[in-house]
Amino acid sequence: MANDGITGNHISKTSIISGFSKLNRDERIELLRNNTGVDIAPELDSFLHSNPVLQQTFSEYSENYLTNFFLPFGVVPNVLVNGEMYLVPMVIEESSVVAAASRAAGFWAQHGGFKTEVLGTKKKGQVHFIWNGQGDFLKQIFPKIEAELYLNTETITAGMKSRGGGITDIGLVDLTSKLANYYQLDVVFETADAMGANFINTCLEEMAATLKDFMTGFAQQGTLEVVMSILSNHTPESVVKCTLTCPVEELAPMSGTYSPDDFAHRFKLAVQMAQADVSRAVTHNKGIYNGIDGVVLATGNDWRAVEAAGHAYAAQNGSYRALSDVKVEDGLFEYSITVPLAVGTVGGLTKSHPMAALALKMLRNPSAKKLMGIIAALGMANNFSAVTSLITSGIQKGHMKMHLPNLLSQLGATEQQKAAAMEYFKNKVVSYSAVSSFLTA
Amino acid sequence: MANDGITGNHISKTSIISGFSKLNRDERIELLRNNTGVDIAPELDSFLHSNPVLQQTFSEYSENYLTNFFLPFGVVPNVLVNGEMYLVPMVIEESSVVAAASRAAGFWAQHGGFKTEVLGTKKKGQVHFIWNGQGDFLKQIFPKIEAELYLNTETITAGMKSRGGGITDIGLVDLTSKLANYYQLDVVFETADAMGANFINTCLEEMAATLKDFMTGFAQQGTLEVVMSILSNHTPESVVKCTLTCPVEELAPMSGTYSPDDFAHRFKLAVQMAQADVSRAVTHNKGIYNGIDGVVLATGNDWRAVEAAGHAYAAQNGSYRALSDVKVEDGLFEYSITVPLAVGTVGGLTKSHPMAALALKMLRNPSAKKLMGIIAALGMANNFSAVTSLITSGIQKGHMKMHLPNLLSQLGATEQQKAAAMEYFKNKVVSYSAVSSFLTA
Fold first, then answer.
1. Sequence ranges of chain B with CATH classification 3.90.770.10
2. Statement: residue A10 has pLDDT above 50
């Protein structure tokens, strides 16, 4: 059934291509041309960087690399975090996100700014294994295993220790009530300014080998089978809290046609609704991650890890709920979010991607802890802005205004039509059908 | 306290910048130069597209736009979904993701491929409101409200109806047990090939106005306060299931040093562990989203929406668990994942971003339903590959091999050192410290 589709003129809808990853870029593109029937080489080439050395770096980021995908790199000014002002880079395709964050940041810069506190930076990983002997025997000899685990990872952890990190705890977890004979080595790491994934996984794989070796000496007690060794992206102990506080009366610039009191009341209701109802909670948190991911991407961090950690954290008490809390008391408005974040300012792509390196430079090369605070502040800025829009003018007015240029491009508007439409929709509701009608009128 | 930092030579750590969004790009960059002390204009400019028309499109994607952020655009060959072969574009910064997906796709293309089934495409949105009158009164007059809601959204929904979508249900939800006087209009939408966010929000804001108007006629029964109107990113009824099946004995090419039976046994254990333990579940699902997000980004869809929906879905039965299921029975291996997906192949950036448009072309311009299947298949490909690595060789061997070029760049290796390192580490374990030692030896 398999045939080599590389030399043919046309890839059938079912033929298997062998050796694709061994082709060079030109050969890959030629194959794609045969497959799509369109000469896509000039278009793909147009997205390459003009500096060949830099381009080489980008070409090495992924197997079967074709070209660079462009996402807008924007900046949010006036982000005041713990008394320090930042211009924060964001990478995100949604047109209203930078504007929303900027609006909130500008307001809060004049009202004390974002106060952030890192509640912990512990990361964890596990060696998952099956032990068919007595659990008590395992627990009894565990101190000896533990000593071996520390000993055999010493060469791996030496560098990290010198940077203030390392392994801080090793536990034995009995999960046999969930799955027959299931145990874990549950290992706690500090990883300084790195996200630490590679360091953690390297340690865990060494620990798995040590554990297996050690237990072969007790074959008469049972058999131990290591199933896998890997870091956990669940990081409920690597957490940052971000808080905004101001007198209710100072909320006037954000409250639209409402009084500051009514605005605060409606804001509180909106957050309570996101705590009470999962349909609302998911969208509320999505708005937080609009801001968080923008900075995560810009700084070369891993947004899938950050998203998975955040939403699992939102669900940790049995029902998925909002990551934020609000208090309106004695004329004071206080809003906070608490999110887990495992990010780095060294390692991964943070320094090797030139734009990520520039993004970190714009943030004055922060420590991982400082970056946690800045990222949380942007999550909060976006969420504050989104909730503010929702409870005042509604979300569509601002959002669609930002999206208008995209709509016009999509509908093939000429430059002249674009200018006319931007003028026409200044005070009108933007929608796909309204813009479409305008262009065909 | 606020001062205008634009004209000064140096932005202090606390000064507020006013009117930043009204500056043009050159002025913004000049201000950044003053702020960072480095002339970043040449670097930022080097990432612009050489075609000014195209570049103009990118410049309009975001407020406070500076330049384009490059992410690698790669391709996964041999993705066989429901009997059709695809070359699937992926945009992701993690170096091992495309390689991992390709490995799984290539194997499964020879064993029946990915079978996908869209279980639903319903999206929802809510008008969240407070009603301080009797709930029974609201329920009693609801049919009349409902009729008005359909009537007043007719002009908005006409276009979508002609494409096979529209509003399919409007419900009244009583959430007063969770929060005093809290009710929702809970509205179900079909959005054809669009993700539908703007359409849904426009409908809901119109509905909110209608609801308020209608209830002013019943002021003696109580007061109704609309708090907000917005789509929900929780989409447990817009779901796709993806399944892989083959005889256990055919798993031999993936089973490493294990027999196919032992491999299947270990694979089953690994999935059961991810169902039993949240620390493992989060990472297991993160691996699924490595694949999903790669295609979501490449096709111009909104990854925050997709991530939020997926992880909330994973938590919907009270404890966060793996999104996949496994069965090994009668010599047959069957693996499936079920994920919510709200994505579009029209609207948003899907057609206006030239690379997203090309990505969709590479996929033969699929319907939204087909795209759901392809995305789920890539999620599954990555997860299958990750679990396979974890239970056979361990994850670090392959991952660090892929990451080696990045490490070398990061450590400032010369071309000669790079070549030597690639050769040296062919059969050795790659780690930051090992590579660092090699370079300084």
1. 90-118+241-348+378-393
2. no
Contact B61 A43 (CB under 8 A): no
* Nearest-neighbour CA in chain A from B334: distance (Å): 19
Tell me where in chain A the CATH 3.30.70.420 domain(s) lie.
123-232
Tokens 């109580």 sit on residue: B222
Task: Give the side-chain half-sphere CA count within 13 A for B82.
Answer: 13
Of residues B11, B14, B272, nearest to A83 (C-beta): B14
Q: Which residues of B touch A36 (CB under 8 A)?
A: 361-362
pLDDT tens-digit map of A215-255:
999 999 999 999 999 999 999 999 999 999 999 999 999 99
Tell me which chain A residues have a C-beta less than 8 angstroms from the C-beta of B316.
278, 320
- Burial of residue A230 (CB within 10 Å: 0-12, 13-18, 19+) is buried
- Which of B91, B114, B311 is most worth mutating to test chain A (most A CB atoms within 10 A of its CB)? B311
What is the mean predicted confidence (pLDDT) over A255-276? 97
Q: Is A298 exposed, middle or buried (0-12, 13-18, 19+ CB in 10 A)?
A: buried
Query: Nearest CA of chain B to the CA of A242: how many Å?
Result: 19
The total number of residues shown for chain A amounts to 441
Sheet containing B238-247: give its strands across: B115-121, B238-247, B332-340, B324-329
What is the interface pTM, i.e. ipTM, of the complex? 0.93
Q: Interior CA angle at A323 toward B237 and A316, to 5°? A: 70
- pLDDT of residue B321 exceeding 60: yes
| Reported CATH class of domain A90-118+241-348+378-393 | alpha beta
Domain B123-232, what architecture?
2-Layer Sandwich (3.30)
| Inter-chain residue contact B289 with A304, CB threshold 8 Å | yes
Spatial neighbors of B20 by CB under 8 A, at least 6 apart, are A77, A78, A102, B6, B28, B31, B64
Contacts of A281 in chain B (CB under 8 A): 234, 312
Considering only CB atoms, B352 lies closest to which of A14, A355, A406, namely A406
Rounded Cα gap, residues B360 and B346, in angstroms: 10
